[in-house]
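Sanity check

After download, print the first record. It should look like this:
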Amino acid sequence: MKHRVAMTGLAMAALLVSVGCVPAPEPEPEPDLCQPGTYSTDGAPPCTPAPVGTFVAAEGASEAIPCPGGTYQDEEGQASCKPAPAGWFVATTGAREATACPLGTYQDETGQSSCKPAPAGSHVGSTGASQATECLPGTFQDSEGQTSCTDAPAGRYVAVSGATEATSCTPGTYQDSEGQASCKDADPGHFVAYSESNSQTKCPIGTYQTNSGEMYCLLAPVGSYVDTAGSATATECPEGTTTENEGSTSIDDCA
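Expected structure tokens:
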């Protein structure tokens, strides 16, 4: 006679597992690690978001790292820091924000810890500049880190952009205004004897000058006279008369 053996529920479950009828229970999961942007003392939950000014790049971190110079972070729980944009800088570690380059300076690269002074021949007139601006013709700048350019003084000029100095007007030319890109030729009847002149001079009586841009005047030749300052020509004596010498100043000198 056959006997039946009663099986408990636990025994039945074990039997079913042994013959592959049901899957075996999964092992307990490994403890989670803190994810990038968070950290804890042992690197496992519960985790804390990286504070503003710091970052956590890897999982399982036990501390947040201050953002290095040239970078910042204005949000919590971040895995990296933000580079300072062009025109801005971050001088310290652990920064929450970038700082605009001050007047007279600029920064043309990202992620920098300082700004560059405007070179001589240029200027920076606003904050947060990503480049310096060349001085325009008629102006110059002989120092770096400046907020504006200087007008060429009277008697001098600046013909090109980005100049570090003004150039003196040469004899025969002058400039009576500031901030100019060229000099003026002396007018006919006038002369400029010296460089860096801010005015022209009328030819005195007894002399004249037909051309422009001259540095001297001509004596009235024999047989002529000049009785008015600033004359471009000499006046011939009446027919049948002449003068004894050059540089006569009146018709009365004609005889």
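If your output differs, re-run the checksum step. Summary of this record's structure: The two ends are 177 Å apart (CA to CA).
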